[in-house]
Design a protein that fits this description.
Distance between the termini: 76 Å
Radius of gyration: 27 Å
Strand content: 25-35%
């Protein structure tokens, strides 16, 4: 409410109901949150939310802001899909197929948003049998009664090397 008085007495019509709207977007006060900013798996949707804010950190209650999101690693670039929720928030998702560390850059009107770039570590998906590669002499030859040695290089459906073990192979 807006109260206007003189000498302690309200003037005619006071108080008034005033609706305050947030100001224009401020890129440095705009916030970004979600797991997709720091981690993810190949083939899975990596998601985060952009919340547009004004210079006073008020959340913008309308949609229509335009964001550009770049998800890049030294070996790949991924297009991010941005959904305007029409309430000042923007749901963002990207689906990487190459494992590695991605720089997530979010821009509005040519300016970086919040604390960009973010670093997302994307790991390989589960081992995919048709892409796994046996390596070593034991794959091609051996002697009866003696152990043969070989290694299986586990790879996911995108041919990324699966790191850290955990894949179970029947031999």
């Amino acid at each position: 409410e807006l109260h206007v008085s003189i000498g302690g007495r309200q003037i005619f019509g006071s108080p008034w109901q005033v609706t305050m709207e947030p100001g224009l977007i401020d890129q440095q006060r705009t916030s970004v949150k979600g797991a997709g900013l720091s981690s993810g798996r190949c083939g899975a949707h990596c998601k985060f939310t952009i919340e547009a804010r004004d210079v006073y950190s008020n959340g913008r209650s309308l949609g229509g802001d335009v964001f550009v999101v770049q998800c890049n690693t030294d070996r790949a670039s991924v297009v991010a899909n941005i959904t305007d929720n029409m309430d000042g928030t923007y749901t963002t998702a990207y689906t990487p197929t190459v494992a590695g560390t991605y720089d997530i850059l979010i821009m509005n009107n040519g300016a970086k948003v919040a604390e960009c770039p973010y670093k997302a570590i994307i790991t390989a998906a589960d081992a995919f049998p048709l892409n796994c590669i046996p390596v070593g002499q034991g794959v091609n030859s051996g002697v009866a009664g003696e152990d043969t040695i070989f290694t299986i290089e586990a790879r996911d459906r995108f041919s990324n090397t699966c790191r850290g073990g955990g894949s179970v192979f029947d031999v």
